Structure formats: C-alpha cells, structure tokens
Amino acid sequence: MGLRMDEASFLQAFGLDGLEHIAAGIAVAALAALAGGLFKAGQLFGRRERDGEQFELRMNLKQAREKLEASESAARENERQINRMTSSLEETRRRAAADGDALLRIHDAIEHGFDRDLGETPAWRSQASRMPIIVIGNLKGGVGKTTLTANLGAYFGDQRFRRGRDGKPTLFIDFDFQGSMSSILLSAGRNFESGAMIQNENRASLLFQPGLEGAEALTLGRETPREHLEGGQFFDASVDLASHEERLFYDWVFDPGRGGDARLRLGSVLYSPEVQDRFGAVVIDLPPRTTLFAYNALCAATHVVVPTRDDRLSTQAARTFVQFLELGRQGFWPRLTIAGLVGLNTAQQPQQAEQVDRALEQTARDISQLWMGPQPDIPYCGKIAWMRQIAETAGEDFAYFNEVGQVVAGSPHQVFTELGDNISRNIGLI
Ligand SMILES: Nc1ncnc2c1ncn2[C@@H]1O[C@H](COP(=O)(O)OP(=O)(O)O)[C@@H](O)[C@H]1O
Ligand SMILES: [Mg+2]
Q: Which ligand 1 atom sits closest to the C-alpha of 394?
C-alpha cells in the first residue's frame, strides 16, 4: 500500500516505515474519523441543545398563556362577585331605608295611636247628613249600650210609626266584637224567619274595605229581621272583628296611601248618596273602648247618646267618655252633638226612682261642664227601668217589640218609645 508524498514525508519526518507506516496510516485515519465524528456529534449536540431550549421556551410560553387565561377568568369571577356584592349592598341599603321608615311609622303609631291629625278632608266631612247617625257609647260595659242601640234602632225603623227621617228604615251597625247587638238581630231573625240558627258573619268589618262605594256597601249588609223593620239592614260583628280592626290599623300604618285615612272609611260609606237615600236613621253600638272602629263611628256620627247606670263607677265612666269626646272634638268630630244621657235604673224600689232621676240629672250637668260642643247642655233623656222582660228578651228578640205591660213602669215597648221620643226631640226629628 503506497503512501502519498505528503503522508510519506509525514512518516519520514517521524522516522516511521513499513507496518509502522500502515499502523500510523490507520491511526491517522482513525483520528480523522474521530475528529469528524466529534464534530458531527458536536453539531448534533448543538442542535439538540437548541431544540431543548425551544421546547422549554414553548413550554414556558404555554404555561404563561395558561397563567394569563387563569388570571383573566379569576378577574372575570372577581368582577362578577363585585357586581353581586354591589347589588346586594344596594338591596340592603334599600331594605334598611324601608325598615327605618317602617320603624318610624310604628313608633309614630304607638306614640299617637288614632290621635294623630287627620291627613285629609274628604268632601263628606263638610256635608250635612240627611239622617241622624247615632252612636251609643260609654267606656264601661254593662251600662245598657247594646240594649239601647238595638231598641232605639227598632224605634226609628218600626214601619208602623215611621219615626226615621222620611219614614225610612234603620241601618244597624255593631262595632263590638262581643256581638251582642248582632245576637239580638240574628236571634230575632231566627224566631221570625227560618227558625234555623243564623251565624254571625262579621259584616261590619266589610265596611272598611279600601275604596268601598255606597252602592256596593248596600249589597254587603244583612236584611233586618222582623216585618216591622222591613227595608232595614244590619252589619253584624263576631269575635273576628277585633283582629280585622287590628289588621286595618297595621295596613294603614304601613301603607297610609291605600284606601285613605283608616279613621274616615265609615263616613265615606254613610255619606254616600245611596246610603243617605236608603235609611231614616243609623244606630251604632260601640265597644267600651276607644277602638279604630269607634273613631270611625264618631268621625261619621251626627249624635252620641251616653247610657249609664245609676252607680258611681258607671257615671264616672260616662264622664271619662265625655272627656274623651271633648279631646277629639275639634280635630275629629267638630259637628257632633251629645243628644243625651240615658239612665239604666237598677234601683228595685219604686220610691227610689225620683232620687235616681235627681242623681242622673246632676250627672248630665257635670258632663255638660266637660263638653264644649255645639249645644250648651247635655240633656238627661230619662231612665230605663230594670225589667225582667228586657233581660229575658235579650238574645231572642228586640225588647221594644214586647208590648205587654206587666210592671208599673209599663211595657218595654212603652219604655223605649218614651226614650226614643225624648231623643228624637233632642235631635230635632220631632
Ligand atoms: N233595662 C234592663 N232591664 C233588665 N236587664 C237589662 C236592662 N238593660 C240591660 N239589661 C241586661 O244587662 C246586661 C248588660 O246590658 P247591655 O245592653 O249588654 O250593656 P252594654 O252593652 O253596655 O255592655 C245584658 O245582659 C242586658 O240584657
Ligand atoms: Mg254592649
């Protein structure tokens, strides 16, 4: 194997020859191959290294993108949360304002009750009633309010005598949740009509529906029983009346704009042309408390009659009632007239009758001092004797229709007729 000149000279230079030449040649070739391999490996390694960097860069980029997306969605979630919190804050603020308003209203309602100034003056307040609207009241129970209301209503509504204005029938209203007057009317109905038990329906509360018109009210009343009371109506009370009254009060406290002032609802019905045309007199039985319905009755009434027993507690309660009337006179019932004091005579001895009259006349003078209303004096209208027939008839019929005279004082019919005549004179009906 020949060596090229440069190789030969190379070998000569190092003093190599023969096999040594071959071995040296192989070594040189191996060295050259190794150098080439190393170079290539270096190149490959370099490329690998760059690929690794790129991969890493791509990975980093990908991670960075993912992080960016994650923070963007976190930002969106935060924004949604902020929006939710803002709207719930607004809701809380709105509720706090409403609750604060309600608290002020409750506070005002507790502080002033029914005594706060009337917020409005509907037209009927300056309209004269064509029929007497008579409220029977005393802040004591058991003084004969209910007995008097029912029988006075029967006196005015009795079609045989036509004592109501223009001979028209009576409208009876029961504002005592005890419902005693309703029982008198309902039981009279049972006795003289169907014979079946008739239920209390608390129609009196229906008179307070917001915006109730007179014509519609007339469809809600019950027909009065008894042929002599034909054409009359009554609005009865049941135990539910008290809770209706309370609900009306709170409806008014929380939503005063709805249905107008809760103390003036009855008046807007009673002064409507339909109701004014239909009846000759209205009688209203009050509970022995100053309730919201009592305010309604007094705001609408033309007259009050105050029954009292001839004992000190009852006359004291009559005084308290007149004081209460005086307190509300200018603000609520400026046109109200006290048509009279009526005695319920519990004295058993006939010889005590005159003494009772003197005492009740004195009470009438006393309460006149407390009252600054349109008429100078509160008249004493006479007394109702304590009669077995009256107590026995109660819950079964009107005592007024009992015309049998069995006692010295005369029949219940006669007693209530005399009393009714006195009251009619006082209110200018006769
Ligand atoms: N003149 C009277 N004679 C007999 N009992 C009467 C008389 N007036 C009322 N009563 C009875 O006395 C009780 C109380 O009368 P009531 O009219 O219900 O009073 P008030 O409505 O003021 O609570 C009732 O049981 C009633 O029947
Ligand atoms: Mg009563």
A: 27
Ligand number nearest to the C-alpha of 141? 1
Q: Cα separation of 125 and 171, whole Å?
A: 20
pLDDT, one tens digit per residue, over 252-281 is 988 888 889 999 999 999 999 999 999 999
Q: What percent of the chain has pLDDT over 70?
A: 92
Could you tell me the distance, in angstroms and rounded to a whole number, from the CA of residue 320 to the centre of ligand 1?
20
- Residues 6 or more apart whose CB falls under 8 angstroms from that of 173 comprise 204, 207, 234, 235, 266, 282, 283, 284, 285, 297
Q: In what order do the strands lie in the sheet with 303-309?
A: 222-223, 233-235, 170-174, 281-285, 133-136, 303-309, 337-345, 380-385
Higher-pLDDT residue of 145, 29? 145
pLDDT, one tens digit per residue, over 345-358 is: 988 787 788 999 99
Instruction: Evaluate whether 344 touches 383 at the Cβ level (below 8 Å).
Output: yes
In this structure, which CATH number among 3.30.565.10, 3.40.50.300, 3.40.30.110, 1.10.1200.10 belongs to the domain 130-426?
3.40.50.300
If one residue of 147, 283, 348 were mutated to test the ligand 1 pocket, choosing by the most ligand atoms within 8 A of its CB, it would be 147
For 5-91, where are the E strands, in sequence order?
none
How is the chain split into domains, by residue range? 5-96, 130-426
Q: Give Cβ neighbours of residue 54 (< 8 Å, ≥ 6 apart).
A: none
Say whether pLDDT at 63 is over 60. Answer: yes
Nearest CA to ligand 1 atom 6: 391
103-114 pLDDT, tens digit each: 888 888 888 889
Q: Cα of 147 to ligand 1 centre, how many Å? A: 6
Nearest CA to ligand 1 atom 11: 391
* Ligand 1 mean position, distance from CA 280 (Å): 25
Q: Which amino acid is at 253?
A: V
Distance CA 136, CA 152 (A): 10
Please answer whether residues 399 and 181 qualify as being in contact, where contact means their C-beta atoms are separated by less than 8 angstroms. Answer: no
- Closest ligand 1 atom, residue 180 Cα: 18
The answer to which of 155-159, 239-243, 251-255, 318-322 has the lowest mean pLDDT is 251-255
Question: Are 392 and 370 in contact, with CB atoms under 8 Å apart?
Answer: no
- 281 three-state secondary structure: strand
